[in-house]
Structure formats: C-alpha cells, structure tokens
Specification:
Strand content: 15-25%
Helix content: 55-70%
Mean pLDDT: 81
Order of helices and strands: HHEEHEEHEHEHEEEHEEHEHHHHH
Number of helices: 13
Distance between the termini: 41 Å
Radius of gyration: 35 Å
Number of strands: 12
Length: 410
C-alpha cells in the first residue's frame, strides 16, 4: 500500500472518529443509557472470573490445610469374598517397610482406633474416640494445638499415659480448653493426664478418623488395649507435592508385596480431590461466563437498535454529507465508529467497576482476592467486537442511502 493511500485512509478514519464523537456528545443521555448494558455485562464478566478464581483458591486452601502431601493406606478386605478368609490387616511392619523402601517420606504414623463410652457431664455418657499415633501425626494432619502441647518421642518411648483432647471434648468436660490441662481421664480403667487440646485446621465434620469427642494418645500406650501389631490406617507425608502420585504407587506396591495376593488395600492421596475442585471451579466459571456473554449479546442488540433508529433520524444529515462529497466508506466508518465508541466506553467503565470491587475488598480486609489482568484485556476486546458486530448493519444501511432521497427527508 502506497504512502498517499495510507495517509488518505488515516484522514478518513480520523474524520469518522471526530464526527462520531461529536454526534455522541450531542446526545449524551441516549449514549449513556445505550452504554449501560455494556457496563453491566463487562463488570459481570470481570467479577465472574474473579469469583471463579477466588472460589478455586479458597477450596485449594482448604485442601492444603488438610495436607496435600499426605498419603494414607487402609485395609479393605479380600478381593474374593470368601467367608472363612482370615483378615490380613495393615501392621506396624508395613510402616517400617515403607519407610525403608520408599524415598521422599518425611513423616509417618500408624493409627490405632479405639472407642469407649465415658461419662460426659454429671449424668451422661457418650462415645469417645481414642487414637494411638506417633508424634508426627500432629504435623501430617496439620492439627492446631489450642493449649498445652502434643506428646513427643520421649513420651512415646517412656509409654507415658498422656493425651490431648479435641476442643469440643475439653469444653464439654471442663468448660474450657485451658482448664482441661492437668486433668485425668480414665480409659478402660487406665488414667490418662490431659496435656493439651487441639482442633482440626479444617473441620471434617466427623468424616475423618477424628470425631467431635476424640483423645489422642501415644501409639505405644494404645498397644495395651489390643493384641498383635494390626493397625487401622497408616499415614505418610512426602517431601514435595510433585512426588505424591509416584510415592502413592510405590507405597501400594510395598504394602501389597507383604500380604496375600487376594487382600486389597486402599492407598490414596488428595490429588484427585484437588483435580475435582479444579474442574468444579472451572465448570462454574464457564456457566457464569455464559451468563455474562448473554448480557453482552443483549447489550449489543440494544446498540444495534439504537444505531438503526439514529440512522433513520439522521437521514437528512447523511444526504447533506454525501452531497458535499462524503463517500460511502466515510459514512460507514462514522456510524461504525459511533457503535464501537458506545461499546468501548461502556466496557471501560465496566472493567473499572469490575476491578474496583475486589480491589476495595483487598484494601479493607486481609483477604487477598485474586485479580486477573487478562480478564480485563479480554473484556475490552469483546466490547470492541460487539461494537463492530452490531454496528455493521446500521453503518451499511447509512452508507447505502441515496443522497437525493435523503435530502428530501426532513
């Protein structure tokens, strides 16, 4: 394309933009009302992306609080349901074998689960869950120690009869988590000294091994109440999230090799839960984006209707411009520029509104709401496309008007 042609095209475009601005400025109320739909649609698009990212971040934080580097193993039973099959549960030997053969494990604990009805209050009894674990359990499960302390390796090796109780159990028994420290609780006639209280970082509502009324004691002490080396579960914590999946497969292989072929064991992690949360957040975001897209579509149709009405109302003006030498291209560009300017002005205001709300929340609270700059760029691009798409029909109609017939219109 030659230099004069480029210069002439730029002149035509700049004149079209100037004429469009003057026309819109002369009808500010109509322009503002027409752009309002784009403001709402664009702000909705920005907020939808923000809500989707915030929801995903919130769910992942909850899973992180449970423990993303966590691998658990549990005996399920025999693959062939034979009534006289001898149970083949997990043992402490399995835990030791995994620690020796699987690299990358930084913490491990067996879980022995016991239950007994204990007096709760003056004249009531309730089931209390007693878990026998290693000291590493507090880190693997990300427990929060509210008061006191968790038992350590010395307590376990010395078989000290100590335990920590759940927050709800401490409040129910002693009215306070602090006042529970130093009190004694009897389990099967054996007295345990309460040395701490705890709660889960994320409440699992009794769906995990921890219930509302739970006491945790050293594994070596829990052996007093059971025969053999069988344990209910094994928990492992690996060094890095990237090796959770291969470590899970390796742990499964080691455990299975130590037991009968027909015995089945559940060895799993929270990776699938993270993937499910990701897919759910993405699906929700897509649905909300579809709603925002419909809003933008309706706004585009509104722009087209207003522009068609504008073309009809300005027929005489179009005839005068053509009579003094305006080309069809110039007329078309003018009305197309008007549609794009309406759409973009609404889009810019919508983007500012959509970003302003999460930014204000970030300034007023400590919660860091994620903000996507890409969503703002996409929103502006979509607004420009809507203006071009729905402004083309009115612009073409204006360009095709006959100048003689247009001048006759009053």
């Amino acid at each position: 394309m030659s230099g004069p042609t480029v210069s002439r095209s730029r002149t035509v475009l700049s004149e079209a933009v100037v004429f469009a601005y003057d026309a819109l400025n002369a009808n500010r109320a109509r322009t503002s009302l027409t752009a309002l739909g784009m403001v709402v649609g664009t702000a909705a698009l920005i907020l939808v992306v923000t809500v989707g990212m915030t929801g995903r971040q919130y769910v992942l934080r909850l899973i992180d609080a449970i423990g993303v580097n966590w691998v658990f193993a549990e005996y399920e039973g025999a693959a062939h349901r034979i009534s006289d099959t001898t149970p083949d549960p997990l043992t402490i030997g399995d835990l030791n074998a995994v620690l020796q053969q699987v690299p990358g494990i930084v913490a491990a604990t067996p879980i022995v689960s016991l239950e007994e009805r204990m007096p709760i209050g003056a004249s009531q009894e309730d089931d209390v869950q007693v878990l026998g674990v290693y000291p590493d359990y507090v880190n693997i499960r990300n427990l929060i120690i509210i008061s006191g302390r968790f038992f350590d390796t010395r307590d376990m090796l010395a078989r000290n009869k100590v335990g920590i109780v759940s927050e709800k159990l401490a409040v129910r028994l002693y009215g306070s988590t602090t006042w529970s420290i130093g009190h004694e609780m009897k389990f099967s006639g054996l007295p345990f000294t309460v040395i701490g209280t705890f709660r889960e970082r994320v409440d699992t509502f009794g769906q995990s091994e921890i219930t509302a009324y739970t006491m945790i004691v050293p594994y070596t002490v829990s052996r007093f109440f059971i025969e053999g080396e069988a344990v209910k579960q094994l928990y492992f914590s690996v060094r890095d999230r990237s090796i959770v999946v291969p470590a899970t497969a390796h742990i499964r292989q080691v455990i299975q090799s130590r037991h009968r072929p027909e015995s089945t064991y559940l060895v799993n992690n929270l990776t699938r839960l993270i993937e499910l949360a990701d897919k759910t957040a993405t699906g929700l975001m897509l649905v909300l984006l579809l709603i925002a897209a419909v809003t933008l579509l309706v706004s585009g149709i509104g722009i087209m209707n207003i522009m068609l009405a504008t073309v009809s109302a300005r027929t005489h003006e179009i005839g005068i411009r053509k009579a003094v030498g305006a080309t069809r291209q110039a007329i078309r560009l003018q009305f197309l520029a008007e549609a794009v300017m309406i759409s973009l002005s609404g889009g810019v205001i919508g983007v500012l509104a959509g970003l302003g709300l999460p930014l204000s929340i970030r300034f007023m609270t400590d919660y860091r709401i994620p903000i996507s700059g890409l969503s703002a760029i996409v929103a502006i691009a979509v607004c420009a496309m809507v203006g071009i798409l729905f402004g083309t029909v009115p612009a073409v109609r204006a360009a095709q008007m006959d100048p003689v017939e247009s001048l006759r219109q009053e």
